[in-house]
Amino acid sequence: MRVLVVVPTYNEASGIETVLRRIREELPHGHVLVVDDNSPDGTAALVDAVSSSDDHVTLLRRATKAGLGSAYLTGFAAGLDRGFDVLVEMDADLSHDPAALPALVSATMHGADVAIGSRYVAGGSIPDWTRRRAFLSRWGNRYAALALGLAVNDSTSGYRAYRADALRRLDLDHVRAYGYGFQVEMTYRLVRQGGRVVEIPVAFVDRQAGESKMSLPIVLEAFALVTGWGVRDVLTGRRRRTPPATGVSGSP
């Protein structure tokens, strides 16, 4: 199966070369697409230098900073057009350990429509997180599970692998969330279509390079969208017809 790892970047010059090297070590036959939102710190130039000697690494430049979800959708579209079978999304800051890539990809090869790198199943962890950050993350996931009827422990995780045919079944042109809520929306859409979700335990560490892009407006956007979808599903009766995710390890 042909695998493409999509890595969105904005001001990730301090760690991008290490990330690319680690990805290529873990997936020697995989490809990497870096979607850079016109980083002023020279991230794109570093990726260009790597791609000049490694034809498995490609750079896609965008003119402006348009959001995490938009970057992934752009990368997915490019990957689907190029005929990749599995599309992986991961951060460029080493908070997502590339050592988990083989397990995520393997899960999709064995029937998962999406394999999520999960912090909240047995074996997963969030070492060195502050209490505030851990509380917000756990609360956000539990709220999403309750509001949307998702039997998924970590629907906000941005470390995951999709089967290409599962992405094609989703209506990606109408995905609304572009920040923190993007991962929840993608999980929600896939589960509603009866997609199979598998959660793979991962250790999610604090970013080792660059600066966090998380902000209060991004969190509020996610909360508003999840609440709106949940209320709509209850009022229209769609909630009762939403099939549960299958193949999920761990318990909510």
Write the layout of secondary structure elements.
Layout: E1 3-9, H1 16-26, E2 31-36, H2 43-51, E3 57-61, H3 68-81, E4 86-89, H4 101-109, E5 114-118, H5 131-148, E6 160-163, H6 164-169, H7 182-192, E7 197-201, H8 216-236, H9 238-241
Parallel strand pairs: 1-2, 1-4, 2-3, 5-7
Antiparallel strand pairs: 4-6, 5-6
Helix pairs in contact: 5-8
List keywords for this structure.
252 residues, alpha/beta, 41% helix, disordered C terminus
The largest sheet, given as strand count, sense and whether it forms a barrel, is: 7 strands, mixed
Count of discrete alpha- or pi-helical segments spanning 4 or more residues: 9
Write out the strand line-up for the largest beta sheet, numbering strands in chain order: 3-2-1-4-6-5-7
Fraction of helical residues: 40-55%
* Outline type: globular
Low-confidence stretches: 240-252
* Number of β-strand runs: 7
What does this structure look like?
The structure is a single chain. By secondary structure, the protein is an alpha/beta fold. It is 41% helix and 14% strand. It is built from 9 helices and 7 strands; from the N terminus they run βαβαβαβαβαβααβαα. The protein has helices at 16-26, 43-51, 68-81, 101-109, 131-148, 164-169, 182-192, 216-236, 238-241; strands at 3-9, 31-36, 57-61, 86-89, 114-118, 160-163, 197-201. A 7-stranded mixed β-sheet has the order 3-2-1-4-6-5-7, sandwiched between helices. β1 (3-9), α1 and β2 form a beta-alpha-beta unit. The two termini are 31 Å apart. Mean pLDDT is 89; it is low at 240-252.
